[in-house]
Give the backbone structure.
Amino acid sequence: MKTGESIDRFLTEALRGNTGSVQGWWRRKVEGVAALHLGFPDPAVFPLKELGESAKAVLEEEGLTALQYGGGPLAARLKEIITEWTQRAGRFPEGREMMLTMGSQQAIDLVCQLMLEPGAPVAVEAPTYMGFLTNARNYTQAFLSYPVDENGLVVDAMAGDLAARRRAGRPLPRFLYTIPNFHNPAGVTMSLDRRKALMALADEFDFLIVEDDAYGRLSFQPEPPPSLQALDDAERVIHVSTLSKIVAPGLRIAWVVAAPSIVKQLSRLNVASSGFLHGVVAHYCLRHGLDERVERLRDLYSRRCHLLLDLLEEHLPPGTPFTRPDGGFFVWLPLPDGVSAVRIYERGMVPNGVAVMPGQSAYADGQGDDHLRLSFSFAEPAEMERGVKLLSRLILDEMR
Ligand code: PMP
C-alpha cells in the first residue's frame, strides 16, 4: 500500500465516521508493523479451551433447543448472572433494569436511535471514543465538544457553554456521552468532584448521560470513584458495559443498566441477540466465574502499561506530558509543537513499521492533529519496544 493512499483512506474512513466497521482495513494488524494502534484485548488470554468446553456442554445438555430462536435455559440465565456480578461490585443501583446487547457498540447505537435525529445536539468529550462518533453520525451532525483534562471532562467548560446556549435560545444536548473510567483515548479517569459537578449540571440543564464503562473493571490501582449512575438520584444515567475486554470481544456480550422506562424503549429497538452465545457465556460464567480473570487481566495490563510508560520515558524527548493511566488500554501522547499526528501515522505505517492512531479520529470537530493514541493492550513487549523506538525516531525527525 502506498503511503499517500493509506492516509487518504484512513482519513476518509475515520473522519467521515466509517471506521466502526470491523472490516476497516486499518483495524487489522499489518505484518511487520508494531501494532500500537489497536485497542484490542490481548488474544493470548482469551479462554479458548474453556469456551470450547462450554459450547460443547450447551449443545450436549440442551440439544436442539440451544440452537432454536432464543436459545435454551442457560441462555435465559445470562442476564441474572451478569446482574448478580455487577450488583456484587456495587454497579447496579436499586430501581434500575438491565438489558443485554450485542456489544456496547449496539447499546450505543440503540441509544442514538432512540434519542437523536438530524440536527439534535449531542454532547461529547473532546477527545472521545471514535466508535461513538461513527455511530452518532448516522443520526446527527450536531456535536457539542467539551475538553478533557487529567481529571476527566472539564465540567466547567460544559457549564459555561450550556448557559450561553440557553441564553441564546439554542437547543441543549439530548445527552452527554462520557467514558469516565480509563478513557479511550485519553487514558484519564474523571475525579469524584467532577462526577458530582456533572450530575448537578445534568439536573440544571436536564440532559441524560450515557456512561460508557468499557474499562472500569480493568483498574491497576486505585479503584475508580463511584460510577455516575451510583451518584444519580434522577435516573438520568444510562450505564453501558461489556464483556469484550474481560472475556472476548467476539462474543458480543454487553449490557445497559438504566431506568425501567428507558430500558423498555431500548428493548423495543433491540432485535438482535444470539441465544446460543448467551447459553455458552452463561455456562462459562457459572463454571469459572469472572473475578479471577479480572484479577489476572489487571495484572497483565498493568505490567504492559508500565512497560509502555517506561519506554516512552526512555525514548521520547524529556518532559513529554503523556497520560499515566490507572487502568484500561490507552496512553494519550501529545506531540511536540509543529509535529503532525497524521504525518507520524503516515510515515510510521509504511515503510517505518509502527502503527499509531492519529488524534483526529477521536474528535467531532477536526481537532487532534497534535496527539496520538497508543495502546498497550495488544502489542507484545518486544513489539512494543520496537514500536516505541521507531516512533520516537520519527518524532525527533519531524521536529528537525
Ligand atoms: N466503548 C469504548 C469506550 C470502547 O473502547 C469500545 C471498544 N473499543 C467499545 C465501547 C465497544 O465495545 P464492544 O466490544 O462491547 O462493542
Observations:
- The mean pLDDT is 92.
- The pocket of 4'-deoxy-4'-aminopyridoxal-5'-phosphate is lined by residues 39, 103-105, 129, 131, 179, 184, 212, 214, 242, 244, 249, 254 (CB under 6 Å).
- The chain has twelve helices and 13 strands.
